[in-house]
Amino acid sequence: MNPALSASERAVNLEDEAFAERLPLETFAFLRRHAPVYWYEWSHRRGFWCITRYHDIVAVLRDHEPFSSASGANLEDWDRAQALCRRSMLETDPPRHTELRKLVSAAFSPRAVSSYESWIRPLVQQLIEETFARGGTFDALHAFAAPLPIRVIARLLGVPEADTPWLVEVSDRLMGNTDPDLSPISPYDPSSERWHLYPFRHEAALELFEYGHWLAEQRRSDPRDDLVTRLVFARLGDRPLTTAEFDNMFLLLVVAGNETTRQALAHALVAFAAFPDEAARLQQHPALLPTAVEEVLRWATPVLHFRRTARQDTELHGQRIAAGDRVVVWFISGNRDETVFPEPDRFLVDRSPNDHLTFGRTGIHFCLGTHLAKMELRIALEALLPYLTAYELAESPPRIRSNFTNGYKRLMVTVRPVQ
What we know:
12 strands, alpha+beta, five-stranded mixed beta sheet, three-stranded antiparallel beta sheet, globular, CATH 1.10.630.10
């Protein structure tokens, strides 16, 4: 399905293991130059088209008519039963997507998010005092980056703060389901078939569903001003949410509400350690915080790709994409596209413009939590300013073995006393 691309084509590897040690950025650069619409024969199941240039990714995201989300947003194909049980807001097109998004969108609007700053700032300061201010060597992923977003989304959902460490552990098992260090159940193993009706083909999804049911039962008798209450009493047209609709929305809010932001924070710490001049520049010029946040998001790209499915025969860069073909947009490649981002492999706190793809940038699936994530990152980076040139990585941080999640399993840092 591709023109002959010699040995370089045969070297293209987009399996999970290719992302375990480092990002295969050379592979994506090769594809952008020579095969921007590339058919990849995936080793586990059906192959897919790889879209790697920035403007092509934007075009696919913008138009849900030829490129649908209804057949799934990741690399797993669904049968009818799986679609009925597992479809969340991510895996829908209008009008259902619009209806589901409207149920929770008010809590993530710019106006609502601005009101959260008064209680997010003390939370960040508490975490700073428990970690960087004390100095020494510690796991900054689990002691600093992880607690912040999970406590924020827990407060919005109405989840007791004492339960947040467990929610992080569950999220790790779901998002790290292809990494044997994080999950004993691989989605590629036949043993995962018994969980095929649950997100990520994983028993942890059932645990999260049961926890959501417990919360929902409480809110039915004791309504509060939180998202769980809103979902419990929500209506789609003339009916309440089905159990599956509630379950999948709850899981999506928990996982998406904490996983991507904590990994962005972790990537920020790795980037500032690798580019100490940029750390010093941000310290000297705190007014660069807004552009630094955008550069962290471009650099981190916590979600490496999303998938669409062609509704009809179409063509892109001379390649015929047949109806039913899977089309994967690689955000990590678009965010390193040298035609859009000069010197894309440099981390620059003053990069502008910076219209990165990390939140999808365009289309109906533009990330609901964009404003909240940016606020959390801005407040966290501001609190970290005194320490940005006072720490170093204690080891090379181990990466999650995944071609979907761009994340670390731990992040050991050593902090020197701040003068």
